[in-house]
Amino acid sequence: MRPTSARFLNILVPVKRAVDYAVKIRVNSQQTGVDLNVKHSMNPFDEIAVEEAVRIRERIKDEVKSIRAVTIGPSKSLDTLRTALAMGADSAIHVEVPESAPAPEPLGVAKTIRALVEKNKEIDLIILGKQAIDDDAGQTGQMLAGLLGWSQATFASKVDVDTKNNVVTVLREIDGGSEEIKCKLPLVITTDLRLNEPRYASLPNIMKAKKKPVEKLKPEDLGVDLTPMLETIKVAEPPKRVGGGKVESVEELVGKLKDAGFTAV
């Protein structure tokens, strides 16, 4: 593992284009997935990751050398990168896949990011959302840390970077409270909702984002195979809920439960 500079920090922020959180999800007519002919936007947890990278630079200023966003997806994913650039990222990488290709699985995404890190050996810190709101897998960050052999801090609700000692203190969400951990750089962080509130990109920054560099790559350029390892057999909507009924007493409730086939244990 290479030594990390105590002076300059290079941050990589993976972002994903997902169905917008406000869209009502519907299964497509082929029952192979959900209808994707709807509004898309950056995965909300990844927005938090971009915001945190920018805030880290605002807090320690000259100690952050670069913030680079990366996405893996079809040509339309460029809009997601432009959003990250408008929020404050300096440059971006677009690993482009065909429009008809299935969405990369978490392991494929982690392998692709690992290849980018090995290609650009200056990266010290990777910040990404704890999960994507489309598949809700919540696996990419942990897999990436394992593949790289880096420290990891998941479900972060507060991040404090000390570049002089190459240590990052992270407050992370756990069941029933929070946990503070200290990690050595290089590090993978996954973001939780309470970490921050992402800023809106201003019109001047949106215009500036169009001039920021975006590097185009393909999976084969990185020696990565994104062929899915899982096969989706069928996607169906859950059964509609049946309305309930009122009872006048506990005895009546017990009787109805017995009639429905439920028995006491």
UniProtKB/TrEMBL annotation:
Its main location: mitochondrion. InterPro entries: ET-Flavoprotein_bsu_CS, ETF_a/b_N, ETF_b, ETF_beta_N, Rossmann-like_a/b/a_fold. Keywords: Electron transport, Mitochondrion, Transport. It comes from the Eukaryota. One of its GO terms (molecular function) is electron transfer activity. It is found in: Mitochondrion matrix. CDD domains: ETF_beta (cd01714). Residues 32-226 form the Electron transfer flavoprotein alpha/beta-subunit N-terminal domain. One of its GO terms (cellular component) is mitochondrial matrix. Pfam families: ETF. Binds 1 AMP per subunit. Binds 1 FAD per dimer. The electron transfer flavoprotein serves as a specific electron acceptor for several dehydrogenases, including five acyl-CoA dehydrogenases, glutaryl-CoA and sarcosine dehydrogenase. It transfers the electrons to the main mitochondrial respiratory chain via ETF-ubiquinone oxidoreductase (ETF dehydrogenase). This is Probable electron transfer flavoprotein subunit beta. It comes from Cylindrobasidium torrendii FP15055 ss-10.
